[in-house]
Amino acid sequence: MKQSLGAKTLLFPAPVLLVGTYDQAGKPNLMNAAWGGICCSEPPCVGVSLRKARHSYDAIVERKAFTICIPTESQLKEADYVGIASGRNADKFAVAGLTPVKSELVDAPYAAEFPFVLECRLLHTIEIGIHTQFIGEIVDVKADPAVLAADGLPDILKLKPLIFDTAHRGYYGVGELLGQAFSAGREFGI
């Protein structure tokens, strides 16, 4: 019999999403958010949930845009730092040694050092308890060639993205390929 753990924010794994914004003064900022993921295929959209108290919250509302950088295993310290420091009190780009790049498509920055970036235009804002979910239409995906497979799409084993353990607040990496989606289950007769 399974043991009840109660209503908790436990889902495995959670992505590590670094949300890029410009604040009211035009200063670039990054924050670490684990509450997010793809939420629509057409149009392509990603959702990320933030508390109103976060510095990035007002920036997204005002600029109607944000970026999402995906950090790699080797960028764990930078990714964690932008999640524990506040953009109100620090220039996170400067402290972490990151280079802000102004998106050509949306009014938000991203960090040049992270190899995978989603550029998003704010599409919807949904109030959910203590968090607000921002739904961003993905207007472009940018990737360093070093993380692409021969077919031109991202290779998860080359990217080596960080993932987050919501139960124990730890960062992990991805493992080996275990099987192909939409194929492995066909042995049951589809």
From TrEMBL:
Cofactor(s) demanded: FMN
Listed GO MF terms: FMN binding; oxidoreductase activity, acting on the CH-NH group of donors, NAD or NADP as acceptor
Record flagged with keyword Metal-binding: no
InterPro entries assigned: Flavin_Rdtase-like_dom, Flavoredoxin, Split_barrel_FMN-bd
Isomerase as UniProt keyword: no
Keywords annotated in UniProt: Flavoprotein
Domain Flavin reductase like, first and last residues per copy: 9-164
Similarity section: Belongs to the flavoredoxin family.
Name by which UniProt lists this protein: Flavin reductase family protein
